[in-house]
Design a protein that fits this description.
The chain is of the alpha+beta class. It folds into two domains: 10-192, no CATH class; 196-288, Homeodomain-like (Arc Repressor Mutant, subunit A, Orthogonal Bundle). The chain has helices at 195-201, 206-215, 220-236, 243-249, 255-266, 270-278; strands at residues 10-16, 30-32, 42-46, 59-62, 65-68, 81-85, 93-99, 115-120, 138-143, 155-157, 163-165, 168-170, 174-175, 188-191. Strand 11 and strand 12 form a beta hairpin. It is globular and about 60 Å long. The two termini are 38 Å apart.
Length: 298
């Protein structure tokens, strides 16, 4: 159920209802959650204030954009704010366009620098206490870079919840994605990869790509898995990164999940693969041992 969105700074939001046909006046079934004019359909909840109290005009609409602005704040003082869309959804695909501009508000915690997110499967604003910082939810985190260090976006965070990934319970607060770092003030689009987008980049329709994959006995999920595998291979070549670090960077909840997925394609564990590529000169194993072929799907 889509119920809560924690939106900080400038962004635009839309949702695709996969179980319905195209909405009137909206192409390809996308239903905009923001009308470009005002906050109709949204409810504000800021820590320390009752539902509906938009303290210091924090959430506002300017030039057709939904913005979160702190220019009337002397100090941030833990005033975490959230916007809740009034209509819950049970079957959806979310696309968010966002960017971060300006400097962090004085008093904001270091981890909150260029930090926002979309809260999914969240509690209602009425069920939150006045001083509650975040709704119990699953968050698709949006982060901006600091101009120097790597900082992925699209991470999974779980305020008040736990999730199961690859059959294992994940209790850590956040699990990093494998995304690039986006420095500066440019716009970023966050959306789950879909077959139509990939097909368009190949100059074909989604249906044609699906048919071509089916003829080869493969699926779109296979393509996503292979892309993740290839990125894992690239990261394993860096001896500084641990296998656990790589698993988290690729979005796995546990190292074991990454190891199983990697072994299905490579025929060996990530640690064995790394040992083979890092212990030899010119591709032969030390001590004259015979190398087992490493499978890759190109």
């Amino acid at each position: 159920m889509l119920k809560a969105c924690r939106l900080v700074l400038t962004l635009a939001v839309s949702v695709f209802l996969a179980c319905s046909g195209p909405a009137s006046g909206v192409d390809d079934g996308w239903i905009p959650l923001f009308n470009g004019k005002n906050l109709d359909g949204w409810r504000v909840k800021i820590r320390g204030y009752e539902v509906g109290d938009n303290y210091a005009d924090t959430f506002r609409v300017e030039d057709g954009l939904l913005r979160v602005v702190y220019d009337d704040y002397e100090e941030f003082d833990g005033k975490f704010g959230h916007l809740f869309f009034e209509t819950p959804f049970s079957h959806y695909r979310l696309r968010v366009e966002y960017r971060f501009v300006g400097q962090q508000t004085p008093g904001g915690p270091g981890w909150a620098f260029r930090n926002s997110g979309v809260m999914l499967h969240g509690q209602s604003p009425e069920s939150m206490t006045v001083d509650q910082e975040f709704p119990v939810s699953i968050e698709a985190q949006m982060l901006g870079g600091d101009g120097e260090h790597e900082r992925s976006t699209g991470n999974l965070c779980t305020p008040g919840t736990h999730v199961e990934m690859d059959g294992e319970l994940v209790t850590r607060h956040c699990t990093n994605s494998s995304s690039a770092t986006y420095h500066g003030d440019g716009w970023v689009t966050m959306e789950q990869p879909k077959i139509d987008t990939v097909a368009e980049s190949l100059g074909m329709s989604g249906r044609s790509l699906q048919r071509a994959l089916s003829e080869e006995g493969r699926s779109f999920r296979d393509l996503l898995n292979e892309a993740q595998f290839k990125q894992g291979v690239r990261l394993l070549a860096d001896p500084v990164k641990t296998v656990t670090d790589i698993a988290l960077e690729l979005g796995y909840g546990e190292t074991s999940g990454f190891s199983r997925a990697f072994a299905r394609i490579a025929g060996m564990s990530p640690r064995e693969y790394r040992r083979r590529i890092l212990t030899t000169d010119r591709g032969s194993l030390s001590g004259g041992a015979e190398r087992k072929p490493i499978k890759t799907n190109n």
